[in-house]
Amino acid sequence: MRLTDDERRMRDGEQGEAVAAAMDLLIRYGEVLGAERLVDTDNVCGANIFGPRQMQLCGHAGPDAVFSEFSLDSPEPVEIPPMRAQSYQLIGPMDTQHWQVQGLSQEAHDAIEESESYSARHGIHLMNTCTPYQVGNVPVKGEHCAWMESSAVVYVNSVLGARTNVEGRESAAAAMLTGKIPYWGYHLAENRFGSHLVEVAEPVRDSLDWGLLGYYVGEQVQEGVPVLDGIAEVPNLVKLKHFGAAAASSGGVEMYHIPGTTVEARSVEEAFGPRRPLQTLRYGERERRLTYEQLNSTAQDTDVDLVMIGCPHATLSQIRDVCRLVEGRKVHPDSALWVFTPRAIRQVAEQNGYARILRDAGALLMSDTCPAIGQFLPKGTRVIATDSAKQVHYLPAIMKVQGWFGSTEECVQSALTGRWQGELR
Ligand code: F3S
């Protein structure tokens, strides 16, 4: 790999052991990928909040040792300096308000809190969400980023035209310390053209429809770059958030084009550039129904223990929509309604009275984490319902529960009645 003088000096330890370890990691990683060089980045989203398990595995040797081991792949503890690049914490393990509801011990709470303040002292912005793009980190077209979190990567690549691959914890941490990332994959213009044409012959209206379409497309194209033709209405952030998260769950989609909507494709021709489609797929009534059945294949029991809204983390508009459905009503005593959102949006939801409406209905507005990442559910939960194709893809597998997938309205109704009555309309 070709290195600049600055990169060579970092590798050789001029800026300390941690930066040298980070540079060494990036060089090894880049060489495996066939990257010829590194590229500068000043926008890194990673995950460096640790709990008691990691502390224990490092023999309680302190947060520098934990960061070295788990974020830098360096078994020898090194002193971690402030981050060089603008750095952001993605989702974490704990809601600082509702950690007891999550079932966390005081010890776990204290360890995570300590890890958060360590991150903050090192210049990592505590956004604590899988949707940094809705709370202030909005990269621009062409900006080289280094982000973890597949649902966020597919959003910023496709909708905003920023450039990132799906990074891992270690490569993102190394990018935070050096401001560099291997120049390969979606950093290169030639890899961003479409690979598959998807003719959408079914109306795609609400976020349920966008989740179904995303799940279908991801499964079909896997790591390809789908181009959607036939979308009649301009989708908003919520719909694109659901689409991308679903496509990145059933497959490994990191980039897509919707001609006329996403920034790198004014037309189908521009989306494909010099490439020809490898395959043309048709999404019609049959594909929609089969995808719906697949997403609901783990559920049989209609008594719903938990309804989860906010995967990826809910926007303020989604919170308002839930409020309109629950205002003046109560969540069924045998069920629970949890809505997940970034910490910053929960603050606004408090100011707007939405958080109070949810509390009065017996629902919880949670932040910073989610059941799939934090691995927590109300005690005894057997059946969940969610409006997220991503969450219903992962949660039944991770937590051994049944999962219903439906519209936001159907999910909220099931929390109010305790029973699932969703169907494909
Ligand atoms: Fe976010 Fe958790 Fe879903 S990280 S995208 S809410 S699985």
From TrEMBL:
Residues 1-413 form the Phosphomevalonate dehydratase large subunit-like domain. Keywords: Iron, Lyase. InterPro entries: Acnase/IPM_dHydase_lsu_aba_1/3, Aconitase_4Fe-4S_dom, PMDh-L-like_dom. It comes from the Bacteria. This is Phosphomevalonate dehydratase large subunit-like domain-containing protein.
